[in-house]
């Protein structure tokens, strides 16, 4: 891709329009990690890219980095906290993946590389896409679905639960790793927003703990920096989404989590109370209240299944609500205007 580019061990840094045009003219498939300068490239996927490069060879597969603020062509990606991976072949956009979703990235790389090989060897028509992900209709999804695969991943109505990646995990750069763990565990992320909470929001959010000694510390911590808010559903396995999320989080206290569930998120990413990395609703009623507070446009089904027993969150139990694509779409369009 030319000696003018500054190369790391794996990914080429595209910092000018000239280098962008040169990338578009490259033979084969190029995967571009579009990132924001304030958070940097998506480091958790580098090992996957290295593995793929070894697996398929060097001739037709390339990886690049592009900071959105440096290139006018990437203007519409500016200010978006979620990693975006653009797949280019023959100078055209042929696929994209949103979020550090390792299984989907691996699948897309293999499929698009095979498709490009057929284009080059057999003269087949290249399938070009338009990035519609910034439209209202598509804003809520974290990646593109292809050719009907996973067509039931978001059905007309599914049980959902709230997940929050807390400021302590976000400030230490663990968001992408946690999201990868969530997706690898079989969850679908219907909404993914980064937001800094207000004190008023957190006092309402944790009002059931207002009498506890640690209440003020908890509120202060949750307002200390950005959190990542997720609405989760689940399409794999027989375990319901709430129980599955509680299991993945582990016990509330990170020290207990490290003893009892060393592979859990709180064991891996939490330090001490209240810095336990992630939050989950305590029951179905509380999930409704929390989602109404943080996503006021979110709609609920009239029928809410009774939440099963599971591991407790912050002195909390499981919670889920049925939701639909329309619910999530409206919630995502409400750009963070939570109840004050």
Automatic annotation (TrEMBL):
<feature type="compositionally biased region" description="Basic and acidic residues">
    <location>
        <begin position="330"/>
        <end position="340"/>
    </location>
</feature>
<dbReference type="InterPro" id="IPR001564">
    <property type="entry name" value="Nucleoside_diP_kinase"/>
</dbReference>
<dbReference type="GO" id="GO:0006183">
    <property type="term" value="P:GTP biosynthetic process"/>
</dbReference>
<dbReference type="GO" id="GO:0004550">
    <property type="term" value="F:nucleoside diphosphate kinase activity"/>
</dbReference>
<feature type="domain" description="Nucleoside diphosphate kinase-like">
    <location>
        <begin position="158"/>
        <end position="302"/>
    </location>
</feature>
<dbReference type="Pfam" id="PF00085">
    <property type="entry name" value="Thioredoxin"/>
</dbReference>
<dbReference type="GO" id="GO:0006241">
    <property type="term" value="P:CTP biosynthetic process"/>
</dbReference>
<dbReference type="InterPro" id="IPR017937">
    <property type="entry name" value="Thioredoxin_CS"/>
</dbReference>
<dbReference type="Pfam" id="PF00334">
    <property type="entry name" value="NDK"/>
</dbReference>
<comment type="similarity">
    <text>Belongs to the NDK family.</text>
</comment>
<protein>
    <submittedName>
        <fullName>Thioredoxin domain-containing protein 6</fullName>
    </submittedName>
</protein>
<dbReference type="InterPro" id="IPR034907">
    <property type="entry name" value="NDK-like_dom"/>
</dbReference>
<feature type="region of interest" description="Disordered">
    <location>
        <begin position="305"/>
        <end position="340"/>
    </location>
</feature>
<dbReference type="InterPro" id="IPR036850">
    <property type="entry name" value="NDK-like_dom_sf"/>
</dbReference>
<dbReference type="GO" id="GO:0006228">
    <property type="term" value="P:UTP biosynthetic process"/>
</dbReference>
<dbReference type="InterPro" id="IPR051766">
    <property type="entry name" value="TXND_domain-containing"/>
</dbReference>
<dbReference type="InterPro" id="IPR013766">
    <property type="entry name" value="Thioredoxin_domain"/>
</dbReference>
<dbReference type="InterPro" id="IPR036249">
    <property type="entry name" value="Thioredoxin-like_sf"/>
</dbReference>
């Amino acid at each position: 891709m030319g000696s003018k580019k500054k190369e790391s061990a794996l990914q080429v840094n595209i910092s000018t329009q000239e280098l962008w045009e040169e990338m578009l003219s490259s033979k084969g498939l190029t995967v571009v990690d579009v990132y924001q300068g304030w958070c940097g490239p998506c480091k958790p996927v580098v090992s996957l890219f290295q593995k793929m490069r070894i697996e398929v060879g060097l001739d037709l597969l390339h990886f690049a980095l592009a900071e959105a603020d440096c290139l006018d062509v990437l203007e519409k990606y500016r200010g978006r906290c979620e990693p975006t991976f653009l797949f280019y072949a023959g100078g055209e956009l042929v696929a994209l993946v949103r979020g550090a979703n390792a299984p989907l990235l691996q699948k897309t790389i293999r499929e698009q590389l095979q498709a490009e090989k057929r284009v080059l060897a057999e003269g087949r028509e290249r399938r070009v896409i338009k990035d519609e992900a910034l439209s209202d209709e598509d804003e809520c999804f974290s990646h593109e679905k292809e050719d009907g695969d996973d067509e039931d991943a978001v059905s007309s109505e599914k049980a959902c639960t709230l997940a929050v990646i807390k400021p302590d995990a976000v400030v230490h750069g663990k968001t992408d790793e946690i999201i990868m763990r969530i997706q690898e565990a079989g969850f679908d992320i219907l909404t993914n927003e980064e937001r800094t909470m207000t004190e008023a929001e957190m006092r309402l959010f944790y009002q059931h703990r207002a009498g506890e000694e640690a209440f003020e510390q908890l509120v202060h911590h949750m307002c200390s920096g950005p959190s990542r808010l997720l609405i989760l559903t689940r399409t794999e396995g027989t375990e319901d989404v709430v129980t599955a999320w509680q299991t993945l989080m582990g016990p509330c206290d990170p020290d207990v989590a490290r003893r009892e569930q060393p592979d859990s998120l709180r064991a891996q990413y939490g330090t001490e109370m209240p810095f336990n990395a992630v939050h989950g609703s305590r029951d179905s009623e509380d999930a409704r209240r929390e989602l109404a507070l943080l996503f006021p446009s979110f709609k609920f089904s009239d029928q809410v299944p009774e939440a099963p027993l599971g591991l407790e969150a912050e002195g909390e139990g499981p919670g889920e609500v049925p939701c639909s694509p329309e619910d999530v779409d409206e919630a995502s369009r409400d750009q963070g205007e939570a109840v004050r």
